[in-house]
């Protein structure tokens, strides 16, 4: 894989992109692993989001107190953190129409007086789907050509995306949200570079917060890395994140249906490469059917010590895509 030579991106690429890809595509590491088969049937494309039911939606919304609404999304801007080191496009925004430009070009043929009077502006954007606050769909990571529920790239991936498990299949997500503030539990503003969150870290933070996980929760992990979001190089470089055992705790012991964090990769690097190992992304998406939220802005929730809330979010319906932007909100509950 080519990595740019510019220092700011090559460092990010070596420390963040390469270990993940090596861990995923190493045949020895994946030899004894297999993708998950859905308990919700052979046609299931949303995995653990099947835990959302009319009863669970009604139950959590009935507890909303209405005192506050927290926006968990980041802003999108030119120069924001991105996976350019892996060859993916950065975020770009440009003007397609401006008030002065319309007077000169008259693109609609309405004449200079009308263009001057209307003062019309228009813009366009181009971006990689895995940037900004977004959700990873279940086709993002797999094993040996298969993804969640045994769907294969050979049968289901075409030139215009996947015809199964695309971002358009993700339902509106309404559930109990839980913030696990690892940084605060350790008494720091931000976890150290490359810090790997452990199962015990999660247990200790939940104990301090006096919160217990329940099946169907949306669990969001705060590392504190969001404090560097405005500085793309600092945000990307050596980010802390979850280890595999911690991810297993969230799903197998905690019952989470959706997990997320405030960093760009969710998991920590370098990857925990060993015999029979899979990356955290593969474990969650391909083996457990648990979508992942990344770049979730958890700073306000942490500041106000809001650890339980109604989580409400829906992604853009990018047909066949392996991720899509999301603007989730948190509503505190009684």
Protein described:
By secondary structure, the chain is α/β, with parallel strands linked by helices. It folds into 2 domains: about 5-80 and about 130-330, Glucose Oxidase, domain 1, CATH 3.50.30.50; about 90-125, no CATH class. The chain contains 12 helices and 15 strands. The protein has helices at about 5-25, 25-30, 55-60, 100-105, 110-120, 155, 180-185, 200-210, 230-235, 245-255, 280-285, 300-305, and strands spanning about 70, 90-95, 120-125, 135, 155-160, 160, 175-180, 195, 220, 240, 260, 290-295, 310-315, 325, 330. The strands form 4 sheets. The protein has a 9-stranded mixed sheet. Strand 11 (about 260), helix 11 and strand 12 form a beta-alpha-beta unit. The protein is globular, with a radius of gyration of 21 Å. Residues about 1-30 have low confidence and may be disordered.
Which segments are poorly predicted (pLDDT under 50) over 5 or more consecutive residues?
Answer: 1-30
Helix/strand/pairing class, anyone?
A: alpha/beta
- Total of domains: 2
What fraction, in percent, of the residue positions are helical? 25-40%
Q: How large, in whole angstroms, is the Cα Rg?
A: 21 Å
Largest sheet: 9 strands, mixed
The CATH architecture name of the largest domain reads 3-Layer(bba) Sandwich
Q: Number of helical runs?
A: 12
- Let me know the number of strands: 15
- List the helices and strands in order: HHHEEHHEEHEEEHEHEHEHEHEHEEE
CATH class of the largest domain equals: Alpha Beta
What name does CATH use for the topology of the largest domain? Answer: Glucose Oxidase, domain 1
Strand order of the largest sheet: 1-15-13-7-9-11-12-4-14
Instruction: Please identify which CATH superfamily of the largest domain we are dealing with.
Output: Putative cyclase
Q: What is the rounded distance between the termini?
A: 50 Å
Query: Can you give the mean pLDDT?
Result: 91
